[in-house]
């Protein structure tokens, strides 16, 4: 593995999940990180990703150094050939190259701007870090994907499903007050399409994911129809891809509560967090035994550890 930015970078997904489960059982079995340094650069906020990746690096014997570059770093210029006479103090060409000299692996979080679809979907920011750092780069959530989250999600589903038949997994949109990225649902879909599950998506009209992420998946605009018999429900808000970055609906009928849960096969309910209680998922579900969001968050450590371990090989 050279970089980890999507499932396409993984040679053997089953083996990766197996390794993550092995790390969960014995976190200190690998010392590949000894003497190595992992830089974690955040252009946007994070709780789980920064902490779980730091713990993962430490479990491998590596040191993780965090820079909240969006807050504490120089404002970065990503465009080439510009005269930098505005508010941007440093070009990505130097910033990434310098970090490439300090670290062995670089993790980067770059949320999409949600105004220019082609710019976000070309992953200009993440690709610039890869181009100029010259070391392995791990996506800590980029414009279009959140692969460390998806790996933890797949691991969680596998742990929670002891049966030999495929589970029915439904990704459902839920309302939100802000325009959020499509990265988490895109990525979850990408991983579920390759997994041994029966996968479908429920969202209001206007919220269909980009075709390259939902190719061949059944998409329902009727949430109740989609939820019937579900074994796992992944609840998440995202802004419109079609009307790019817009909030088209705040329909509270899509808030996931007991009413929705009762349509399922006593489903396990998932969310990547942070979750807005009462708006995205109701307390009655989050505080029930069906909710496995904390298991997902816990598994972030072992997902990150298996990726760092691969890159350190
Ligand atoms: N890393 C997990 C999710 C991050 C982000 N959520 C958020 O920005 C929520 C912010 C809020 O609720 O105000 C997203 O949806 O991609
Ligand atoms: N799920 C997730 O990535 O959480 P953070 O945004 O807090 O890192």
TrEMBL record:
Domain Aspartate/ornithine carbamoyltransferase carbamoyl-P binding: from-to ranges: 2-159
Enzyme class: transferase
Stored NCBIfam families: PRK04523.1
Pfam family, one: OTCace_N
EC number from the UniProt entry: 2.1.3.11
Stretches assigned to the Aspartate/ornithine carbamoyltransferase Asp/Orn-binding domain: 184-308
Any single biological process term in GO: L-arginine biosynthetic process via ornithine
HAMAP family assigned: SOTCase
MF term (GO), any: ornithine carbamoyltransferase activity
Subunit note: Homotrimer.
Role summary: Catalyzes the transfer of the carbamoyl group from carbamoyl phosphate to the delta-amino group of N(2)-succinyl-L-ornithine to produce N(2)-succinyl-L-citrulline. Is essential for arginine biosynthesis.
Keywords: Amino-acid biosynthesis, Arginine biosynthesis, Transferase
Superkingdom to which the source organism belongs: Bacteria
Record-given protein name: N-succinylornithine carbamoyltransferase
Binding annotation for N(2)-succinyl-L-ornithine: 141, 176, 236, 276
Pathway listed: Amino-acid biosynthesis; L-arginine biosynthesis
Catalytic reaction list: N(2)-succinyl-L-ornithine + carbamoyl phosphate = N(2)-succinyl-L-citrulline + phosphate + H(+)
């Amino acid at each position: 593995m050279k970089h980890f930015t999507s499932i396409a970078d993984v040679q053997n997904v089953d083996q990766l999940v197996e390794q993550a489960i092995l790390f969960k059982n014995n976190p200190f079995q690998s010392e590949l990180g000894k003497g190595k340094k992992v830089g974690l650069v955040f252009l946007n906020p994070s709780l789980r990703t920064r902490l779980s990746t730091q713990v993962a690096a430490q479990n491998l014997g590596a040191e993780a150094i965090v820079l909240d570059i969006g807050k504490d770093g120089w404002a970065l210029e990503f465009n080439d050939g510009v005269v930098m006479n505005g508010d941007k103090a440093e070009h990505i060409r130097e910033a990434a190259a310098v970090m490439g000299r300090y670290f062995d692996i670089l993790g980067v979080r770059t949320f999409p701007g949600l105004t220019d679809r082609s710019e976000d979907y070309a992953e200009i920011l993440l690709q610039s870090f890869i181009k100029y750092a010259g070391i392995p780069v791990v996506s800590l959530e980029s414009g279009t994907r959140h692969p460390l989250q998806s790996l933890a999600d797949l691991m969680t589903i596998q742990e929670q499903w002891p049966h030999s038949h495929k589970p029915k997994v439904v990704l459902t949109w839920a309302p939100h007050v802000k325009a959020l990225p499509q990265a988490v649902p895109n990525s979850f879909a990408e991983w579920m399409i390759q997994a041994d599950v029966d996968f479908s998506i429920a969202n209001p009209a206007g919220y269909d994911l980009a075709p390259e992420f939902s190719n061949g998946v059944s998409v329902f605009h009727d949430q109740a129809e989609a939820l019937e018999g579900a074994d796992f429900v992944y609840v998440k808000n995202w802004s419109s891809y079609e009307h790019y970055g817009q909030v088209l609906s705040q329909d509270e009928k899509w808030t996931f509560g007991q009413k929705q849960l009762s349509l399922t096969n006593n489903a396990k309910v998932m969310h990547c967090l942070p979750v807005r209680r009462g708006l995205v998922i109701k307390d009655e579900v989050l505080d029930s035994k069906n909710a496995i969001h904390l298991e997902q968050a816990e598994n972030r450590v072992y997902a990150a550890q298996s990726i760092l371990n691969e890159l350190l090989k």
